Structure formats: structure tokens, C-alpha cells
Amino acid sequence: MKTLLINDEIKYTGTQLSPHWIYKNFHIQGNCIVAFIGECEVNLSHMVDIEDVINNEPIYSQKMLNFIEENFNASLEQMVYKQRLLVTITKEVIEKYSPTVKIMRSGDDLYINNKKLSVSIATKSITSSLIHFGLNIISDGAPIKAADLINDAKINDIKEFAQKILELYKEETEDISLAACKVRGVLE
To answer: Is the pLDDT of residue 53 over 60?
Structure first.
């Protein structure tokens, strides 16, 4: 699993959740995950979550920490498991950085004080499976009651926080692969 924390700000529009976006823009080929900061505005025309489209719920965040993963070996269901792993690791990192913050995970979403901190989706393209996971850095202007990393999670160094998540996620996914390779098959 290759990782990259992108220094440039990128506005997330939903178009980044497409096959080979990471390869075409950052020359990282194969299974990888990247993180970047930027405004997030996903209109219904680029929305992958059909439930959000039906409910007419576009996504907006003035500033968001985004993670995009592309995997060429995973089924959609496996990618949903990986999505939940990424969300759980993020929850654990927030708890480590800010032990007094009460954060809750429900499926692939994180909440602080009943305010939604994150957005997330896993999907399949013609060549790969993909995840987008975003965390509000600033919640001002969000279309719903939202939490953010700075005010609610008490995370100030967003890049350091992002790098820690990338490192732990890489370690965990590589450890899972090794765990699958070290066992003997059974016949009965």
C-alpha cells in the first residue's frame, strides 16, 4: 500500500473518485491512498451515494481533510470493510490526540456531540474499487449540523494528523495481508 500526503490544496468535487485519478495526477501506480486538504463541494450530478441523491443532500465543507484510496484487488464488499477500518483508525487517532473528546462511530460515519464529522463512500469502477473519506476541518457553511476537527475534535496540526492516519492504515492493511499469508490451509 503506497501513501501520499499531498501538500497542495485540492477542491474535492467527487470527480476525484474515479479510476487512476491518483496515478494520473501524482504518478502513484497500484494500490494506494492519498490525503489532501481543500474545500469540498459535491453536487448531486457527481454524487456516488444514491441515498444522498434521492434525499437531495449535496455535500459541502469550507475546508475538509480528504482521503482517496484506490485498490485493484478488492471487491466492493471488501472495500466497504477497508472503509470501516479507515474510519475506525481515524476514530482511534482522534481519541489519542484528544482523549477528552467523546467521538462515536456509526457505520462509516464519525460523530462528536451528535454532530456529523465525516462523509464516506466506497464504490467500484470498471478497473478498481475506491474510497472517499472526508473530515470537516471547518464546519461553517455545512448543509447539516456538522462537527469539525479544529473546534470539536481539538486537532490543530491537520497534516500531522493526516500523516498518522496514513501510516497506521498502511501498517494495518499490510499486517492483514501478512496474516493471511502465514497460515496453513486445513482439510477438515
So the answer is: no
Nearest residue to 79 (alpha-carbon basis) of 48, 53, 116, 110: 48
167, 170, 186, 187: which is closest to 178 by C-alpha? 170
pLDDT of residue 144: 83
Place of cell 482439510: 187
Please state, in angstroms and rounded to a whole number, the distance separating the CA atoms of residues 188 and 186. Answer: 6
What span, in angstroms and rounded, lies between the C-alpha atoms of 122 and 169?
Answer: 16
Which domains does the chain carry?
A: 2-179 (3.30.930.10)
pTM: 0.93
Q: For residues 165 and 1, what is the distance between their CA atoms, to the nearest angstrom?
A: 13
pLDDT band at 44 (very low <50, low <70, confident <90, very high): low
**Which of 19, 77, 11, 83 has its CA nearest to residue 41?**
11
Distance linking the first and last C-alpha atoms of the chain: 34
pLDDT band at 43 (very low <50, low <70, confident <90, very high): confident
Rg of the chain over all Cα atoms, to the nearest angstrom: 16
